[in-house]
Structures are given as C-alpha cells and as structure tokens.
Design brief:
mainly alpha, Rossmann fold, UDP_glucos_trans, transferase, UDP-glucosyltransferase activity
Length: 136
C-alpha cells in the first residue's frame, strides 16, 4: 500500500527479491543498492533488462569485504545523483515511469482470476491436495 501511494516518487531498494517484486507490482521506479547474494542479479534485471531503475554503484558484496572498505563504500554524492535521476522528469525519467506502470499492470493481471500467477498457485494447491492428475 505504501509503495502504491501517489506520493511515492521512487524506492531505494537493496534489491531483495520481495522488495523488487513489490516495487514492480506497485509501478515504482527504483534506486538500486544491492549488498550481497542474488541482489546483484536482481539489480541487473531492474536496471538493464526492465530499465525501471538506476544503480547507486555498489560493486562488491559486503559479505566479502569490510563495510567500511573503500571497495564497499558508495559515496554520498553518488547517492544524491541517483536519487535525482530516479525522481527526474524529462524523456528518460518519463520513459522509466511508463515502463514501471506497464509492468505494474501486467503484475496485476497475473494475479487476477485466470491470470498466470493465479492459475499456477491454484495448480500448486491442487498438487499439494493430491489432485494432480491434470499435471501429469
């Protein structure tokens, strides 16, 4: 509900899968700041594939370096630039927001009755209940 509020202009995320999906479903553009693990892959999806995010510039998983190491630090000036870019209008910002809105609509349709996510969850429940003859 918070991400979907009209006052939210962007979302700074660590790129965990749940927060990434929630932002996509809400149609919110993202400033991405991964810390470790799959978060770097999720960032590539958001920034390079879906093109609805701007990377803060984290390069090294903090799990493997001291968080105060020069390799792990993201400078405040870089964060400021990314937040401005996420919040900007203009052609680039408008296109980013338009893509986020389209993805949000697709996510909504997927969870409606008959949508792909709805149907797949229904199949999982049927399988768990032993009603899996149609899945063979």
């Amino acid at each position: 509900m918070i991400l979907g509020h009209v006052a939210v202009g962007g979302f700074m995320t660590h790129c965990g899968w749940n927060s990434t999906l929630e932002a996509i479903a809400a149609g919110v553009v993202m400033a991405t700041w991964p810390r470790f693990g799959d978060q770097f892959v999720n960032e590539r999806l958001v920034v390079d594939v879906l093109r609805i995010g701007v990377a803060v510039g984290a390069k090294v998983p903090t799990l493997f370096v001291d968080e105060m190491s020069e390799k792990a630090l993201v400078k405040g000036e870089e964060v400021r630039k990314v937040v401005e870019k996420v919040m900007q209008g203009g052609e680039e910002g408008d296109e980013r927001r338009k893509r986020a809105s389209v993805l949000s609509e697709k996510a909504r349709k997927a969870i409606e009755v008959g949508g792909s996510s709805f149907e797949n969850v229904k199949k999982i429940i049927q399988f768990a209940k032993g009603e899996n003859k149609h899945l063979e």
